[in-house]
Design a protein that fits this description.
This protein is of the alpha/beta class. It has helices spanning 2-22, 26-36, 55-63, 76-85, 122-135, 153-169, 174-187, 193-203; strands at 45-49, 68-73, 92-96, 108-114, 136-147, 207-214, 217-223. It has a seven-stranded mixed β-sheet with strand order 3-2-1-4-5-7-6, with helices on both faces. Helix 1 packs across helix 4. It is globular, with a radius of gyration of 17 Å.
Amino acid sequence: MEHIRNAFDSIAAEYDAQRQYVIPQMDQYYGAAVWAAESTKTNPAILDVGAGTGLLSALMLDKFPAAELTLLDISENMLAVARERFFDRKNVRYVVNDYSRSDLGGEFDIVCSALSIHHLATEDKRLLFKKIFRALLPGGIFVNADQADGETPYFRERYLEYWNGFLQAGPLAESECAEILKRRNSLDRNEKLSLQLSWLREAGFADVDVVYRNRTFVVTVARKG
C-alpha cells in the first residue's frame, strides 16, 4: 500500500477541487450514499474507511450532526486536509493507518467509504468486508460508494469510454487529465459488482443491495442483521 500512500499524499492539496470534474453525477452519487446511511440514534458512531479529505464524512455530519465520527486513512496528507475541514468539530477523530492490514476497532453503527476500497487486491477486499461486518453493531449499516468493473469486457470498455469522455469534456487541463488517467490505470483494481455483492453476503450481511449505479460508479449498502 506504500505506493497508494505516496500517490494520495502528493495530490492531497488539489484533490477536492478536481472531484466534480472526475466523478460524473457527483452530487447524486454521494447523495445516494448519504441516503443509504441510517440509524435510530441521533449520535451514531460512524467510521469512514479511506476517508481521505473528509468529503463523505462532511455529508454524513450534515445528516447526523451529533455523530461520533472516526476518519481512517493511510494518507496523512489527505487527513490533514480533513483536519482543516473539521477544525471546529469536537466529535471527530483521525486515525492514520493501512485499513487493509489493521483492526478497525468498533463498535460502529455505520461504516462508510467512498472511492477507496477499489484500490485493494481482490482477497484484501473480501477480508475487509468481513472486518467491517465484525466492526458493526447489530442492525449496523455499511455504505460503500466505489467503483465496479463491467460484468463483461464489452461493458468494461463502454464504461471507460463514458468516463474518458466526461473527463475530456470538463475544464481540467490536458496535463491534469493525463495525470488522473495515469493514476487510474496504475492504482485502480476494480471488481465486478456481482462479485462485490457476493462478498458482502459471504461476510454475513443480511440485507445487501445497490442503491445507485452510473456505469463504473456504484453505491452498495449492506445491513448487519
